[in-house]
Structure prediction request, 266 residues.
Amino acid sequence: PTAMREVFLETPKVRWSDIGGQHEIKKRLQKAVERPLKYPQRMRRLNVNSKKGVLLYGPPGCSKTLTVKALATEAGLNFLAVKGAEILSMYVGESERSLREIFRKARAARPSIIFFDEIDAIAARRSSSSQGGVNVLTTLLNEMDGIEELRNVLVIAATNKPDVLDPALMRPGRLDNILYIGPPDFEARREILRIWASKSVVNPDVDLDDLASQTDGYSGAEIVSICETAGDAALDEEEETMQEQDVQRKHFDYALGQVRRQITDA
Ligand code: ATP
Prediction:
């Protein structure tokens, strides 16, 4: 694989309004991005450096990726997405070159966000990494330490396994803004359901509050999956009856039985 293939600029289309709940996270991320762009002089006057890095951790399917995309869209930032596993799978020396290339691209495209999904793949504790892994991590730390050059480049990393990360990565000046993104609470679940319903045709016999109560412990991704399974059941019925259907309570009841809860299941 060539270094270039793994690095691409994206223009995400996700808006804050596409994400149910997580209001505190949205606010904190907005601040990390907007303050340095809007008030660089104020920050200089008070001798405060802008944050260079954010670490998002939490169970899978709970909107980490979605949140970073929305941040880029709403703040008008260029967005580079990289998966840790992709970087690690490259040839010796290629991973490091690719990493440097990502940072170079991000600087050229600033203001920008570099999003490292599955950061644990390249930033596991050095004691437990292969030699190749250590070199990649060192390159990442070096790139992050270039202070001035990284102005208006925000590095955001995501992981489901924060415990395996090398602590050096979270030192001040690196990924020192650490945010937990957990499973959606009742309000968030209701919003996720509402967002989906607003783009579908849902029968009035469906009680979204009720559904939000019944989906305690489900991830955002699982809730969307329930909605789509319900929608699919309505489509099945449409084919059988040859009559247009909306998505009804019975379809959701069926879907609830189909989609398993994974993140909080014993
Ligand atoms: P992973 O750790 O598996 O990469 P993630 O936390 O990055 O997961 P996302 O990719 O952001 O999860 O979410 C997966 C999908 O779940 C989204 O594309 C969206 O359909 C749905 N989803 C998750 N959380 C929410 C939410 N709060 N509001 C709306 N949709 C959500």
In short: The pocket of adenosine-5'-triphosphate is lined by residues 19-22, 60-66, 117, 158, 160, 184, 188, 192, 195, 220-221, 224 (CB under 6 Å). Residues 1-6 have pLDDT under 50 and may be disordered. The first helix runs from residue 3 to 6.
